[in-house]
């Protein structure tokens, strides 16, 4: 069964509701200050792409061709590529910035995806993410565990109980505490590879 994430018009409708309740501000902060070439992993229907500054060259990937067709209408000048986070078709150290918004809940192998991001990121580059994460309260985290199988099936891949923030740190990134916002289970943050660990 195709889930919500694989039906572009339905996904866009749900995201429009989120954007109207304040999520669009998070999207703007995610990409709004970029000055250079950026790779967006899992761009979906391209909701972030029109928010990039005009002088920023966006390269965006997604495994869903239908979503990329919708993204093309939003961002005619972006370079769009059908690809998965776990197999990025780019050379090592190709990008100064990698962006990901509500993606790693659905990546089949998050550790491999983050390893690929680390590979294509320049040594002094920055990873910018918006993700929902596992709840810090044990009871609510167990509730996420309980709904996960049905939720993943309905959405077409989203795992509400993943702790993507911890996975980013496990992959060798250091999260910038000055650029981290937490609201409920939502996180917006940037991270870098510590000097000497690239």
CATH class: Alpha Beta
* Number of structurally distinct domains: 1
Shape: globular
Biggest sheet: strands, sense, closure?
A: 8 strands, mixed
What name goes with the CATH superfamily?
Answer: Vaccinia Virus protein VP39
Rg over CA atoms: 16 Å
Average pLDDT, to the nearest integer? 90
Poorly predicted parts? none
In percent, how much strand structure appears in the residues?
A: 15-25%
Termini separation comes to 40 Å
What name does the CATH topology carry?
A: Rossmann fold
The run of helices and strands is HEEHEEHEHHEEE
Please outline the helices and strands.
Blueprint lengths: L7 H24 L6 E4 L16 E5 L2 H10 L4 E4 L12 E7 L8 H11 E12 L5 H18 L8 H7 L3 E2 L5 E3 L2 E7 L6
Parallel strand pairs: 1-2, 1-4, 2-3, 4-5
Antiparallel strand pairs: 5-8, 6-8, 7-8
Overall description:
With 198 residues, this protein is an alpha/beta fold. The chain has helices at residues 8-31, 65-74, 110-120, 138-155, 164-170; strands at residues 38-41, 58-62, 79-82, 95-101, 121-132, 174-175, 181-183, 186-192. It has one domain (4-192): 3-Layer(aba) Sandwich (Rossmann fold). Strands 1, 2, 3, 4, 5, 6, 7 and 8 form an eight-stranded mixed beta sheet that branches. Strand 7 (181-183) and strand 8 form a beta hairpin. The N and C termini lie far apart (40 Å).
Quickly describe the structure:
The protein is of the alpha/beta class.
Considering the chains and any ligands shown, give keywords for the structure.
198 residues, alpha/beta, eight-stranded mixed β-sheet, Rossmann fold, 8 strands
